[in-house]
Amino acid sequence: MRNLMREKLLNGKKVLGTFFQSGSEAVMEAIAVSGLDFVIIDKEHGPIGVETALGLIRAAELRNITPLVRIKDISRSSVLKVLDIGAQGIIVPAVPGIDDAKKLVEYGKYIPIGARGAAMGRAADFGHGEYADDIMAHFAHHNEQTMIIPMCESVEFLESIEEILQMDGIDGVFIGPFDLSIALGKPAQFSDPAVASAFERVLKACQATRKFCFIYAPTAEKAKDYFRQGFDGVAVEIDLQVVISGYKEIIRRVKA
Ligand code: 3PY
Ligand code: MG
After folding, report:
1. Ligand approaching nearest to the C-alpha of 94
2. Residue nearest to atom 1 of ligand 1 (CA)
3. 27 Cβ partners below 8 Å, 6+ apart?
């Protein structure tokens, strides 16, 4: 496994991606051709099961775009299944706080960092890959390449952010601006001082621990703004929204 997004981040580059809900491998290839760095296959809000996610990950690999998966809940099987089929990172929604962040590391990283269950499935080249004869090297490689990124979407998580980021095995944090702003009592008021300072606290905590800070942006302008503020990665829009706005713009121009 080669996580190209992680390589870019380690080289100091900013990465741009999108959320992916269409479930179409053709759309995955098309997005990759567009030049984005990563996609987040959305099993939380999108209608995507594990079998569909597997085909999407293959399509992403074929076109060199990094496939991350937003899992639906914090359970051992949700974490394990997507990592075993080849997700190069997991985005984990609504993590309540420290205890659940610890669980994520336990489920998603192999020893000595966590206690991920081992099976020589797809992500392990079915036991015939580069590390076939050295299980500890296999574990070390995957611990490095696969990223565990909890989402900051609650007050409790925000209040524990500094401690969570100290944990070995947590590679970064992803801010869910809608859910975090709702938790702060300011739904979608992203420029409200309380919301903006919460975002800043997460960003500063990531920078202080040298972990990666991601956020969702509903528009390209907002994405640009977040990069200016210092975010490492931004997921902009959702694939199907882009299809709609693309066709709406064509309709507008044809009718103009
Ligand atoms: C949020 O804003 O809460 C998100 O989860 C973005 O996808
Ligand atoms: Mg959310």
Report:
1. 2
2. 176
3. 20, 239
Q: From first to last of the 256 residues of the chain, give the pLDDT tens digit.
A: 999 999 999 999 999 999 999 999 999 999 999 999 999 999 999 999 999 999 999 999 999 999 999 999 999 999 999 999 999 999 999 999 999 999 999 999 999 999 999 989 999 999 999 999 999 999 999 999 999 999 999 999 999 999 999 999 999 999 999 999 999 999 999 999 999 999 999 999 999 999 999 999 999 999 999 999 999 999 999 999 999 999 999 999 999 9
List, as ranges, residues with CB under 5 A of the ion ligand 2.
Answer: 176, 179
Distance 121 CA to ligand 1 centre (A): 31
For residue 145, give its domain range: 4-255
Q: What secondary structure does DSSP assign to 143-172, as a single string?
A: HHHSEEEEEE-SHHHHHTHHHHHHSTT--E
- The CATH number for 99's domain is 3.20.20.60
Burial class (CB in 10 A: 0-12, 13-18, 19+), 128: exposed
| Number of domains into which the chain is organized | 1
